[in-house]
């Protein structure tokens, strides 16, 4: 029997296969007079979780729609999973999964039934479909309810089933548009686990969220979108360091003490923000020496705070500083 020659060694240059999962340049989208996206550039490396953060109407869903080939941009370039999404949307569609904010479930069927049907429609054999459905039911805590009609599920269970439906097919890039919305805290933790599990398998995840904690805990890199433009991008820790601010808050015993503290701190060149109703004074700590200056100023004015607390910058602050919007949690 002739021995088959082994295939030539096709070792690639180290970065030949390292094309980003998502590459967007100069992206713009107008809906009539509304500019939903305005010059968006974005690169998401493979196997990472990218968080798209922004208030209602910032353009998150439009961007996801463009990446998932559902929305045609007005201008710009879009590459997803190695394909040009404008010239070959069908190639992109085969490599991605998208979960929207509304679900396409058959409520008369069980959770397992929905998953099995989707798997079979995607071409899986009977056994492979059962295995995948079982894995997903376990991962999303739906095993106990797997064989009940989906119409008996709670809102949170339906959201989890919807997410599971998105993941039936193993995709290179998964888009999750506000996956945490409508989930109770426990289900949200499960969802976070699932997302991490996806990246372990090399999948790239782009998720939109209005929940800052979700972005903070889950995303390797966060992009903050406001009115269709990117206003910041970076690892959550970097954003907090760059844009966030440490602060100290003193709680005072009386209204008089509060007023004295505000005067003393302002006199020391700090910028106190007094809340006379709550009898607190908050001072931004812009420099390393500011905390000591706060203590000295209060002591010199003979004000004894009942409590002094330090706050590290949170993503909330970063978001507020960048967008001027307080977070609005859509639930
Ligand atoms: N199909 C559409 N037709 C007209 N305007 C739209 C359409 N989709 C989105 N918009 C508008 O584009 C802007 C961005 O919307 P969207 O991408 O849904 O924001 P987000 O998901 O961040 O809340 C909003 O002003 C919205 O009203
Ligand atoms: Mg949206």
Task: Describe the secondary-structure layout.
Blueprint: E1 22-31, E2 34-44, E3 49-53, H1 60-67, E4 75-80, E5 83-84, H2 89-93, E6 96-99, H3 111-121, H4 126-139, H5 155-166, E7 173-177, H6 185-200, E8 204-209, H7 212-218, E9 221-226, E10 229-234, H8 236-243, E11 246-251, H9 255-267, E12 272-275, E13 280-285, H10 290-300, E14 307-311, H11 315-323
Parallel strand pairs: 3-8, 3-9, 6-7, 7-8
Antiparallel strand pairs: 1-2, 1-4, 4-5, 9-10, 11-13, 11-14, 12-13
The structure holds adenosine-5'-diphosphate and magnesium ion (MG).
Adenosine-5'-diphosphate is lined by residues 31, 34, 36, 54, 56-62.
The second-level CATH architecture of the largest domain is: 3-Layer(aba) Sandwich
Number of strands: 14
Q: What fraction of residues sit in β-strands?
A: 15-25%
Instruction: Characterize the overall form.
Output: elongated
- Quaternary form: single chain
Write down the overall mean pLDDT: 87
Order of helices and strands: EEEHEEHEHHHEHEHEEHEHEEHEH
| Low-pLDDT runs | 1-16, 326-331
CATH-level-4 superfamily name of the largest domain: P-loop containing nucleotide triphosphate hydrolases
Count of structural domains: 2
Derived from helix and strand composition plus strand pairing, the structural class reads alpha/beta
> Largest sheet, described in full?
6 strands, mixed
Named CATH topology of the largest domain: Rossmann fold
């Amino acid at each position: 029997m002739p021995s088959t020659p082994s295939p030539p060694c096709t070792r690639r240059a180290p970065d030949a296969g390292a094309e980003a999962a998502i590459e967007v340049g100069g992206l713009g989208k107008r809906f009539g007079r509304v500019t939903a996206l305005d010059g968006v550039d974005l690169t998401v490396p493979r196997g990472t979780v990218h968080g798209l953060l922004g208030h209602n109407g910032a353009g998150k869903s439009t961007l996801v729609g463009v990446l998932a080939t559902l929305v045609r941009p007005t201008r710009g370039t879009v590459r997803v999973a190695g394909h040009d999404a404008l010239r070959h949307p069908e190639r992109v569609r085969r490599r991605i999964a998208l979960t929207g904010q509304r679900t396409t479930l058959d409520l008369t069927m069980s959770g397992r039934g929905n998953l099995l049907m989707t798997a079979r429609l995607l071409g899986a054999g009977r056994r492979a479909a059962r295995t995948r459905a079982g894995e997903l039911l376990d991962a999303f805590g739906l095993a106990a309810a797997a064989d009940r009609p989906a119409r008996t599920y709670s809102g949170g269970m339906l959201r989890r089933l919807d997410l599971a439906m998105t993941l039936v097919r193993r995709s290179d890039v998964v888009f999750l548009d506000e996956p945490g919305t409508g989930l109770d805290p426990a289900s949200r933790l499960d969802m976070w686990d699932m997302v991490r599990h996806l990246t372990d398998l090399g999948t790239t995840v782009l998720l939109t969220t209005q929940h800052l904690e979700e972005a903070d805990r889950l995303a390797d890199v966060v992009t903050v979108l406001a009115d269709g433009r990117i206003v910041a991008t970076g690892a959550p820790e970097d954003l907090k360091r760059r844009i966030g601010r440490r602060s100290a808050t003193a709680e005072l015993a009386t209204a008089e003490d509060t007023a004295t503290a505000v005067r003393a701190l302002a006199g020391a060149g700090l910028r106190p923000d007094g809340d006379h109703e709550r009898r607190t004074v908050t001072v931004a700590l812009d420099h390393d020496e500011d905390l000591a200056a706060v203590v000295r100023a209060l002591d010199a004015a003979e004000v004894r705070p009942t409590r002094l607390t330090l706050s590290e910058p949170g993503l909330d602050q970063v978001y507020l500083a960048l967008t001027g919007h307080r977070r609005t949690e859509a639930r």
